[in-house]
Amino acid sequence: MEVPTDGRNLQKNLGCAAHALSAFKPLPDQSMNDPVLLRELEKLDPAIAFRAVQNHTHHTWAKTFHSHPTLYIQPHSLAEIQKLVHLARRCRKRLVVVGSGHCPNTITCTSSWMVNLDEYSEVLRVDRDKKILTVQAGVRLGALNREAKKCGWTIPNLGSIDQQSIAGAIATGTHGSSLYHGILSQWVHSLRLVLANGEVVKCSAKQNKDLFQAALVSLGALGIVVEVEYQMVPATNIEWVQTLQSMDTILDTWDTDLWIKAEFTRVWWLPYVHRAVVWRAQKSRKEHVAPKSNWYGGAIGFHTYHILLWFSNYVPRILPAVEWFVFGMQYGFSTGTSITAVQEQRTGLLMNCLYSQFVNEWALPLSKGPETIRRLSAWLNGRESESGIPFSAKGIWVHSPIEVRVSDTSKHAGQARPFLDISYEDGPTLYLNATLYRAYGIDPPCKDRYYEAFEWLMRDVGAKPHWAKNFLTPHRSDFEEMYGDKLQSWRGVRSEVDPEGLFVGEWLRENILEAPCKEPLDCEEVEVSRTAWGKERGGGVEWFGKQASPSAEGLTRRSVSSGSSEESFDQVVGAEIEDSRLFDSMSEDQGSSVHDEEFYAKPREDAESDMDGTNVFEKM
Questions:
Q1: Please, what's the b/e burial string for 233-254 (b: 16 or more CB within 10 A of its CB; e: otherwise)?
Q2: Between β-strands 264-270 and 233-234, what pairing exists: parallel, antiparallel or unpaired?
Q3: What is the average per-residue pLDDT within 130-155?
Q4: Rounded to whole angstroms, how far apart are CA atoms 476 and 514?
Q5: Burial of 171 from C-beta contacts in 10 A (0-12 / 13-18 / 19+)
Q6: How many CB atoms lie under 10 A from the CB of residue 529?
Q7: Confidence band of 411 (pLDDT split at 50, 70, 90)
Q8: What's the fold here for domain 14-119+500-576?
Q9: Which InterPro entries match (predicted)?
Q10: SS3 letters across 150-217
Q11: pLDDT higher for 576 or 384?
Q12: C-beta separation of 196 from 503 below 8 A
């Protein structure tokens, strides 16, 4: 069970609603003096804190978008999460849950209420026999791996970073690069969510299966994920080898051993020099061996590339020469040069993302990789007719590298598959990521036309965009065609658990949800405007929204079930919450409690200290 909070901590943590309100400095809209909010707060147990602050500015990690939520809320307990959900619904305020902000589009932008679960990040239960950890959803992947190490375990696979929360990584379909693994949600045994009516529901492949398949890639639109039951594997070292190869070699070995020679394989494609860096890693019992040092691979290389990228905004035609120089200095100017190391898997799989960036990644069948790469290469190198892409490449020079990764969810047919899984269920999946850096906060001049051409090619080969990236051209009708009945199933679940749109914003409406028949949902937020920030403010776009419903008066009583009315929730949200039906399936869970194990995740402690990618370019 969750570790209980004693009375002293409760008082210390702003247990009294009156004290909470007195601590705020109201914004011009008098958010905390909202009579509806004050009235609703009076109805609820003041011992359950409502930890809201104002004057918070949210931005994506890359600072591509900025927004100003009316309230920024960091709950510490399940009861606090239920309380804020109840208040938001009664006050007609959209809720957005954010973690590290690594999703670079506007899906987390809001002028309404924003929730962050960094303070809800403990490990709850440890099943040592099955190697399963049950955690609160705010725990970051890096912190989870550090705690798992205490049991001799690790997360089976990672993407390029471990800064996301476990809930955020699952919600957007995060993946690594291995034909022996699917996406990260493959390893989820069960989830618990707080729905829009305040109820907590557990779902798994055997319990509430439709909700489970929708929640495995939820896009934050179903409720607040509060608990994740996740499969671990034995901790191990990996030995990795990174080699510079020609693109001809890459394409010639594509269908033979390129992707199966090792458990983990990534490729960074350098389109102007027609080469690629191939990174392979295999589990190993060898002792830790640091990569060979390179005087250029640390701060010198980092700042040199950054400055050259900045200069290329004004003289774009230097980018092919920049690619030759920067990657030649790091990997050598001839093919065959290699770097090797032995590191812990939990850190060895990570890479340094370098600078603020746009990321535009699409998934396509692995078998279409060579054709797609040849066509994109032809376009980038000025051979437009050979590429078949109906956009001019004249004057377009792009950044390097283009990231090439893989996964295979077709080998896990017995597991519940997310409705919105971007990978292909009938074979391996290839991911192409066209990264563009925002050197010193400046958007590169090639962005719009490059991404327009890139996305046209991706759609031409039947690809689908990654949810947590900067795609530009696809919209609702395109996703309906891409996902068909699975999107309809996801929409059906979403409408059932959140009929009033408590978790619905503009990005979801424009891309995923059906067009509104008449009016927006009662709690839905709509976009009002965007304002570009100048260079002096670091660039990016400022986003503004408003609630679709003009007032919280006239509250409707649509509910998910007969037990979901406001009255029933008011009774449940009190001090007896831990003993209520919200944990009715606790007896199904195996393993010791975190209280007995004294086993806690601390996401902010030494968050970066385990990062092996100190030398920036050793692993891109």
A1: eebbbbbbebbbbebebbbeeb
A2: unpaired
A3: 98
A4: 7
A5: buried
A6: 9
A7: confident
A8: 3.30.43
A9: ALO_C, FAD-bd_PCMH, FAD-bd_PCMH-like_sf, FAD-bd_PCMH_sub1, FAD-bd_PCMH_sub2, FAD_lactone_oxidase-like, Oxid_FAD_bind_N, Oxy_OxRdtase_FAD_BS
A10: CCCEECCCCCCCCCCEHHHHHHCCCECCCCCCCEHHHHEEEEEEECCCCCEEEEECCCCHHHHHHHCC
A11: 384
A12: yes
Domain-wise residue ranges, the chain: 14-119+500-576, 123-235+582-597, 237-474
φ/ψ of 392, rounded to 5, equals -70, 135
What's the chain's length in residues? 620
Confidence of residue 148 (pLDDT cuts 50, 70, 90): very high
* CA gap 468, 453 in Å, rounded: 20
Q: What is the pTM of this model?
A: 0.86
Which CATH architecture fits 123-235+582-597?
2-Layer Sandwich (3.30)
In a 10 Å sphere around its CB, with 0-12 CB exposed, 13-18 middle and 19+ buried, how is residue 53 labelled?
middle
Whole-number pLDDT of residue 601: 31
Locus of tokens 């707080």? 194
Place of tokens 């950044």: 399
Q: Is 296 helix (H, G, I), strand (E, B) or coil?
A: coil
pLDDT at 307 over 70: yes
The predicted model gives 393-397 an average pLDDT of 97
List pLDDT tens digits, range 46-75: 999 999 999 999 999 999 999 999 999 999
**Amino acid occupying residue 516:** P
